[in-house]
Amino acid sequence: MRRPLFIARQSGLPRGPLGRLIAAIMVRETASTNRQAIAALEIRPGDSALDIGCGSGLSVELLLRLVPKGRVTGADPSPVMAARAKARNYRAIASGLAEIATAPVEHLPFPDASFDAVMSVHTLYFWADLDIALREIVRVLRPGGRLVLACRTPANPAAAASFPAEIYTLRGLSEIEEALRDAGLQITASTADEPGGEPALIRAHKP
Predict the structure, then answer these.
(1) Residue 69 is part of which domain span?
(2) Total count of domains within the chain
């Protein structure tokens, strides 16, 4: 069933009371995929990790358990989501183990080569320019750093029918892979979108 436009817009940039409700729903909907993305990152105890489009901060919380000697950062363009992520991880933030930034993928407020691992789940649809977004990710990745992306693609008929094209840009797996290579990344693993199951998952690293 096609998502109403007002809900689709909130999925891309939650705001206000409705945004907070949509945020709570998205936590449940994306929890399994976030865990798969984290597993694919192959996190090490001393890693510095970034979750782009961190939403309510669930992945930040999960990543913190895997990096006792490292640091976890979340970034989200929605002030509503960033606030939820900060509330969820306030102890880690207070102790200097975590940080939450309100920022879009195209303008990440971090120095070059800041992170060993970067992930982003169900956010690629809202990136206005895939090439610019990936170049920014490559900028903040350290040499040898890993990137994991998870998203639905047009190969999934249900996704194509339910996600309004006015809000969601569904990109094909081959298009995403080509953009990753153009940005200077090497693809190390790729799984296709599963109708009725998990979305496409792509793992790449920076040479």
Answers:
(1) 5-205
(2) 1
Q: Give the E-state strand segments of the chain in sequence order.
A: 48-52, 71-76, 98-102, 115-121, 141-151, 186-191, 200-205
Is the pTM of the predicted complex or chain greater than 0.70? yes
Give Cβ neighbours of residue 54 (< 8 Å, ≥ 6 apart): 60, 74, 75, 76, 81, 82, 85, 100
Encode pLDDT of 42-80 as tens digits: 999 999 999 999 988 999 999 999 999 999 999 999 998
pLDDT tens digits, residue range 82-128?
999 999 999 999 999 999 999 999 999 999 999 999 999 999 999 99
Q: Quick one: angle between helices 16-41 and 79-88, nearest 10?
A: 60
Query: What is the arrangement of strands in the sheet containing 48-52, beginning at the earlier edge strand?
Result: 98-102, 71-76, 48-52, 115-121, 141-151, 200-205, 186-191
**Which CATH number belongs to the domain containing residue 116 in this structure?**
3.40.50.150
Question: Which tokens sit at 82?
Answer: 């960033």
Cβ atoms of residues 119 and 53 within 8 Å: no
